[in-house]
Amino acid sequence: MTQMEPISKFIHTEAAEAAPGVARIDVEAVSSKGARSLYASRQTIYPKRAKGRFRSIKWAVMVVTLGIYYLLPWIRWDRGEGRPDQAFLLDFEHQRLYFGPIEIWPQELYFITGILIVSALGLFLVTSIAGRMWCGYACPQTVWTDLMIAVERFWQGDRNARMRLDQSAWTFEKIWKKTATHVTWLLIGIATGGVLVFYFRDAPTLAAELVQGDAPLVAYVFMGIFAFTTYLLGGIAREQVCIYMCPWPRIQAAMFDSESLLVSYRGFRGEPRGPHKKGQPWLNRGDCVDCKACVAVCPMGIDIRDGAQLECIQCALCIDACDDIMDKVGRPQGLIAYETFRNMDAVAEADRRPVRVVRPRTVLYSVLITLVLGIMGWAWVTRSPVEISVIEDRNPLFVKLSDGGIRNGYTIKILNKAHEPLRFRVGVEGIAETETSIVGLARGDAEIAVDADVVRALKVYVTVPAGAKGHLGGASTPLKFVVTDLATGEHVVRDTAFRSPGP
Amino acid sequence: MAGHKELDAVTGVETTGHVWDGDLKELNKPLPKWWLYVLYVTIVWSIGYWVAYPAWPLVDGYTRGMLGYSQRSEVTRDVAAAKDSQARFVQAIATSPPAEIEKNADLMEFVLRGGATQFANNCAPCHGRGAQGFKGYPNLNDDDWLWGGTIDGIEKTIQHGVRSGHAEAHVGDMPRFGIDQVLTSAQIVDVASFVLSLSGAQGDAAAIERGKAVFGEQCVACHGAEGKGMVEMGAPNLTDGIWLYGGSKSEVEETIRGGRSGVMPAWEGKLDPATIKMLAIYVHALGGGK
After folding, report:
1. Is-contact A77 A87, C-beta < 8 A?
2. Position with higher pLDDT, A443 vs B264
3. Does B108 lie at the interface with A, CB-CB under 8 angstroms?
């Protein structure tokens, strides 16, 4: 901080009262319109503790999301002998992704693409209905920052105590409180990074390895990176991440329209604002008593009364703060609330209109989400446990044999995604009198076994004897490979071609 | 410019002092702080890097760095580790007869993959990436073998080569019937007609008849009475329509006139015995093995 504000500016003084029993907090919005210089030094924000409906929802979301993050790798899922029993595992080493009963092979990564597309569309849908719900409640940056602020409050006290501590000299009390805060942040960071690596390797095994110090180096490196970034972004950088690093605040404006529910100060009700004295009538004045409680609780350091702004993550803590004040001064709650632009333009309560959730853009997003989910579901249901591909030899295209016959070579790849060994018979159709041989098998043998969870490549030679060349139609004759599952009798047919020097 | 700061009247920000078109000036805005800090961090990082890793070129060599890292030793270590992990396969290949290797699916997969790599490294320049061969370099996919198409035969050919100078190399030249004036030009044309007819080509019946007589005198010793060739001499089968030096009449005449003596190097000593055996099994499995 280059220009330190005088301490008196921050500490609220009892002298100023916004309304009977309501202190005016002496606070300026750090990220206010006036202070929005591109090159300003960062000013510390000291969010005051909020209590209320939305704070409770945020605590619940934090418990659920962090609970999922920290506990998910420990859930087991029996997949049988010799296979990982972790329910949620990104096994890069063996090139498999496991999500409970779902197992994804590298060539099926389009399922992940589908999930990402649905997630993005879901984000668009939620944003067009109710603004930055993601930013306000569920974004990891928000959740971890919230946790870090709670830790800070635990060790150093609420807003005023923290400001006083920061302004004070380096006493023993300040040193131990600051140390305790940073140590706790680092521990949370280490736990975060530590859990992340469990998603990539069997959690109990890796936990033991980490403790004994013989885990792979990459595990320690990623643990370190995520411990450090959690500490840095959640503990130190906080709102700077949302304001300066994240692209989403810049994009989200395109998702809003006049019907989107955004955390807003209802100016038509609040203005003109000003202190309210006991017994004074509420006629010809707004409900806002200018107590600045909404500014004091804001983790982004803004004044919601300035209107919609890029810095606002719409965490709704100002709603809780204001509702509390409204109760105290005996005015109805909801001076700050989820409200649409359209209703913000209304000049009186009577002009307000009910919120329209079904709108062209929400319908469009819902249709797209349904469509992508439908395609993915269809792809998943029709997914075969066996994949077969036939690749023609290109070099040489064909081989002339000493008896005048023509031979072509093919590579057949059989992917067995089933969790048991399968047996197949490989046959050829389309040209009469061909002779087929498979490298590694006795002549005439066409039955092959493919172990569970592997790809088996076979070299197959197909020969058209000299006497049968009449069956060939020019330089390229259509040929079919028929692979039969011996257990089920199911056929898979792959079209290919037989090449020859021509007629 | 230097020494005195000029402040822009509108913004109150310092200018760079440069003036374009008489009145156009540039504001000297500071760099974003995060950007500047990242720059400082990279500077500190680079100094640490110089100390830890090879960095600066010197007159003779370069600064080695405290970690003693070198990509060369990294590769050497990787190669040694790879050799280590392949040792049990290589050992098994060296000690097992080919028939046994073919029965072992695991070992066979190693042999075919390793063979393909070794073929690409050592054999492809002459025989082609797909072993399809070129004029003068035999196609190894077909079932026509000059020096024998069993695994043992192929292994021997790779070991000792053909006309390679190795003591046990395959030898046996196609003589220069024209250059050495054993046959007249007319006789060569006749023999070429006859040889091509062995592979089913049509030609002048009288010339073929005359050529057959010459063939009976000059060629049967190596190519056999029926023209089926002889593995001991490396004499090709002339009846199968497969021509190492081309199957047009002029090409066959050229072969008879000037003789042929292609060379294949001996690989013994250049490749270890297990690799040679691996190559033999790989080539045998290309489809034409006997």
Report:
1. yes
2. B264
3. yes
The answer, for B130 touching chain A at a CB cutoff of 8 Å, is: yes
pLDDT at B52: 94
Alpha carbon A121 to chain centroid, angstroms = 12
Residue A36 pairs in a beta bridge with: none
Nearest to A399 among B30, B105, B139 (CB): B139
**pLDDT tens, position by position, A457-486:** 888 999 999 888 888 888 899 999 999 988
- As given in the structure block, the two tokens for residue B250 are 């002029």
Q: Which residue has the tokens 């080919």?
A: B98
Helix axes A110-130, A360-381, angle to 10 degrees: 160
Q: What is the nearest CA distance from A125 to chain B, expressed in angstroms?
A: 33
Q: How far is CA B32 from CA A81, A179, A376, B28, in A?
A: 56, 30, 44, 12
Indicate which CATH number applies to the domain containing A395: 2.60.40.10
**Mean pLDDT over all residues of chain A?**
87
Asked if the bond preceding A272 is cis, omega within 30° of 0, the reply is yes
pLDDT in tens, A380-391: 888 888 889 999
Is pLDDT of A275 > 90? no
Do B235 and B223 touch, CB atoms closer than 8 A?
yes
Last residue of a domain, one of A222, A246, A270: A246
What pLDDT digit, counting tens, does each position of B101-157 carry? 988 888 988 999 999 999 999 999 999 999 999 999 999 999 999 999 999 999 999
Size of interface A-B (CB pairs under 8 A): 56
Tell whether pTM > 0.80.
no
Rounded Cα–Cα distance for residues A84 and B121 (Å):
39
From CA B191, how far away is CA B203, in angstroms rounded? Answer: 11
Q: Using an 8 Å Cβ cutoff, are A50 and A317 in contact?
A: yes
Residue range B87-167+265-284, CATH number: 1.10.760.10
Does the ipTM surpass 0.85?
Answer: no
Looking at the fold, whether A53 and A201 belong to one and the same domain comes out as yes
Return the biggest CA–CA distance within chain B: 112
pLDDT digits (tens, 9 = 90+) for A75-113: 998 887 778 889 999 998 888 899 888 888 888 888 999
Map out the domains of chain B as residue ranges: 15-62, 87-167+265-284, 185-258
Question: How many C-alpha atoms does A423 have within 13 Å on its Cβ side?
Answer: 6
Tokens of A163: 């400001």
May I ask the CATH architecture of the domain B185-258?
Orthogonal Bundle (1.10)
Partners of residue A422 on adjacent β-strands? A450
